[in-house]
Amino acid sequence: MTATPNRSDLAPSYDRPAITTGIVHIGVGGFHRAHQAMYVDRLMRDGSAPGGPQETRLDWGICGVGLLPGDTRMRDALASQDHTYTLTLKHPDGRHESTVIGSIHDFLFAPDDPEAVLSLMAAPTTRIVSLTVTEGGYNIDDATGAFRTETPGAVHDAAHPREPTTAFGYIVEAMRRRRAAGITPFTVMSCDNLPGNGRIARTAVVSQAAMSDPELAGWIEEHVAFPNCMVDRITPQTTPEDIAELRSDLGIQDAWPVVCEPFTQWVLEDDFPAGRPPFERVGVQMVEDVVPYELMKLRLLNASHQGLGHWGRLLGMTYGHEAAGDADVAAWVRAFLEREALPRLLPVPGIDLAEYVDTLFERFTNASIADTLERLAFFGPSGMPKFVLPTVRDNLAAGGPIRLGAALCAAWSLGVLGTDENGDPIPVADDLRPLAERQEAGDETAFIANEEIFGDLAENERFRTTYLEELAALRSQGARARMRELVAEA
Ligand SMILES: NC(=O)c1ccc[n+]([C@@H]2O[C@H](COP(=O)([O-])OP(=O)(O)OC[C@H]3O[C@@H](n4cnc5c(N)ncnc54)[C@H](O)[C@@H]3O)[C@@H](O)[C@H]2O)c1
Ligand SMILES: O=P(O)(O)OC[C@@H](O)[C@@H](O)[C@H](O)[C@H](O)CO
Fold it and tell me: How far apart are alpha carbons 141 and 455 in whole angstroms?
């Protein structure tokens, strides 16, 4: 194992030993390393130009924090290469563009030394704590929008607030220490795919604090900023082939590189009372109101991924580009976007939404990144309520069309049974399977009656009827024929 990915011409041009932690990031996975850490790396490279204000940029180094047992792998991989790693952009024409990213300069696996994490989070030099802990990681009930106070992590951290185990427990304890020491609170920046990710992070942190210290909860509510943002870059999971390819193409030995598409976007609410890096210098759009951008991205891109994932898997496909390149699946996704999703969006400053949709299809058909449908659709239980069902609800309220959305729910429920239309197995999250099985056994609304996901949609006569019609049509016609008919229906 080499100490750093070994291509000096790709390596960071700045003085890495001089980096100090300004950002603590919880949940260092592929996406954080392809996106936020890449922007900070750009900033550090930018600042290292002759005469550039490098010293201020190097204050924004990232210390990664892992909370889950699986994060020991990231701890070890990064530690073995001085916390650098290779980021490879895979272009649709097969070109690869690699850079060695150096902005993450340290990583703490919290269970190894919780105090080290808390001390760092409470230090005045830490001005941002950012998160990519997945949608499910926020512990929010989709139906009510409330924090789930009954989960074991929340209960533990409320009973032992000085010995936290969850992201929110750590943030609360660090805030308590900062407040006691008179240190300005850091900004909490969620970078997960959630509508109102800052607002949701605020709910999680304030609710966790309220379970043990209501007064602290009030202080956090009043003093801590939780900017919302829209984040975008398709980042598949790294495969053993990616690692081998890097070795054979560039001679780089990297324990855990990242591959992603060339496209990247970050639209960030400018609300950082404790200060922030000059992100606008490296392509981040700093705005006052993120809502139109985030609705556009989640309800078009991520909803399309759900469409590609659930239909594609039912048809026995494996990859995102395979589904996006299939004429029937692509036509269905376009029809859903154009008929049901686009009419419910807000105008987005400077963006032509029809062009945005065209660009999405160019991105989805990028075969080089080999993104799997399993990654796109495995988390249907968190993806569908955030990316697809809000469009269905808005259309129900506005008297708009819901048939394509309801058909996707039906396709999803059939996929959850774990077998595609060829009789081959589909990997699925097991917790929904009993409901899909009850649906198969004749309890036709069992799947949509799951309030955690569907809220009260099963009680909506129009949704229920349309869903049941689509379920019946799918069973009798099969996915491809039903998709074609739906697209032709106009
Ligand atoms: N991959 C993408 O294309 C992409 C693009 C935009 C946004 N995102 C957002 O980033 C998130 C992570 O994606 P990724 O590709 O990096 O996934 P990943 O599986 O590579 O990494 C996820 C990280 O989150 C941590 N984590 C998960 N649940 C947690 C919890 N409850 N508490 C603390 N840590 C937790 C994991 O330990 C891991 O470090 C997504 O869920 C999404 O919200 C991803
Ligand atoms: O990561 P999830 O589960 O929120 O959603 C799966 C994909 O839609 C998502 O990761 C996209 O690739 C990403 O949001 C692109 O920016």
Answer: 10
Instruction: Walk me through the domains of the chain, giving residue ranges and CATH numbers.
Output: 5-288 (3.40.50.720), 291-489 (1.10.1040.10)
Return the DSSP state at 315. Answer: T
Give CA separation, 472 vs 410, 422, 466, in Å.
Answer: 9, 19, 10
> Structure pTM?
0.96
Ligand with an atom nearest the CA of residue 68: 1
| CA 468 to centroid of ligand 1, rounded, Å | 34
Nearest ligand to the CA of 197 is: 1
Per-run averaged pLDDT (10 residues), the chain, 490 residues: 66 93 98 98 79 72 98 98 98 96 98 98 98 95 91 98 98 98 98 96 98 98 98 98 96 97 98 95 95 97 98 97 98 98 94 96 97 87 90 98 98 96 89 95 97 94 98 98 95
403 CB within 6 A, ligand 2: no
Q: In the numeric block, which tokens belong to residue 339? A: 């008929």
Packing angle of the helix pair 167-181, 114-122 (nearest 10 deg): 50
What 3 state SS string does 75-138 have? HHHHHCCCCCEEEEEECCCCCEEEEEECCEEEEEEHHHCHHHHHHHHHCCCCCEEEECCCHHHH
Q: What tokens were used for 204?
A: 């999680």
Query: Predicted ipTM?
Result: 0.99
C-alpha 85/C-alpha 100 separation (Å) is 6
Cα(351) to centroid(ligand 2), Å: 21
